[in-house]
């Protein structure tokens, strides 16, 4: 009799499921496709990426100008750059935690305010100490960049995620070119103060259109705010001119629970009271997430392997990327005392640093195109590892002094590859973490990368200044090679996979 009752209950449940179909955020996004709504979100998030790129690029121009005007020592000049990276180290970790606990919108609102105000006021700094403090605050604000990338990622349908994240990354290159162009126009006439003030305008744009930016429906669902998530998805459907899937919006938590117990008449959820019930699901299922710190969750048995490998890759990427940007100037200098006399150009002409940086920035476009062509076809892991190893091949001849033309060509090819790996790792990182700690995970990894950015000029480029080019290039070779090896040991590929909402949903083993 008990068996017959259970069969009857199961049949009744199946009928109920048929009358009230359920769908997740991922299923809704796939059904509605990439349309006008996502283009608007891309434009908003892209403006934030442009803002970060411009603030980073201006470091190449402001330091020397301030040193000349205020008579600073070389140590004081380098500190202007170092404090920005130090601020980003703090901000990347802090804003990730804020956005995971209080929402993506709150996360990037605070970062935009800090970056905009501190960046604008930097142009009016009356002395060196004030400038250092303000630039450190700018760095803290810039540390929130991963929040915007995670926010945009959570609106993209799974099949298109790789390609559109590459498009998003292209805004960084746009920002570098805009800043080089602005410096080329502003610095010779108006000076560094105008450059600092005008470079804060993209951050101001984020504040201007903030009221139109929606919260991530994945974040809302995870926190039991299902009605609000459904409203956001309704806006997506309306702007994309498609219909929202019929039925109830549920999280993966709810679907897992449905598989593990037999519902009774009291447990059938109706749309009208779904929000109140849904709010309890994430807390019951993933209670450990709330009781443990975000950092301890990153190092939990299911995530520790991915986390440690990701930190190594972010460090190697930042070390290599900023190193190659600096080496482009160091190794192609006609007046370097370390370059053999036979390799010096006969034409001793002055070079325009703004023009050189402007031209060098275009090396990133082929890297973006290469990423777009491979990320969704070949996959994240294979694309990244292949580009790391190819970068090693481009750099290897530079162990010995080469002609200026060949050096430039080899560095151009290496920068294409490292731009590609940087682009793809910023796609892969948010995909391997669940919604509950996604921005924290990417933020901490980004912070580790900032350490690579701080160490690089002190170690690698310092060797070039000391006429130890071979040692410098070998150091880059080692860092890049082991970064490629680390990618191969990532536990799983994320191409085309749905995003997870909690640590409990991660099926693959990440244990060391």
Automatic annotation (TrEMBL):
Residues 41-495 form the Major facilitator superfamily (MFS) profile domain. It is found in: Membrane. One of its GO terms (cellular component) is membrane. Keywords: Membrane, Transmembrane, Transmembrane helix, Transport. PROSITE patterns: MFS, SUGAR_TRANSPORT_1. The keyword Methyltransferase does not apply. It is a multi-pass membrane protein. One of its GO terms (molecular function) is transmembrane transporter activity. Pfam families: Sugar_tr. The chain crosses the membrane at residues 39-59, 79-96, 108-126, 132-153, 165-186, 192-213, 308-327, 357-375, 382-400, 406-429, 441-465, 471-492. PANTHER family: MAJOR FACILITATOR-TYPE TRANSPORTER HXNZ-RELATED (PTHR23511:SF5), SYNAPTIC VESICLE GLYCOPROTEIN 2 (PTHR23511). This is Major facilitator superfamily (MFS) profile domain-containing protein. It comes from Aquilegia coerulea.
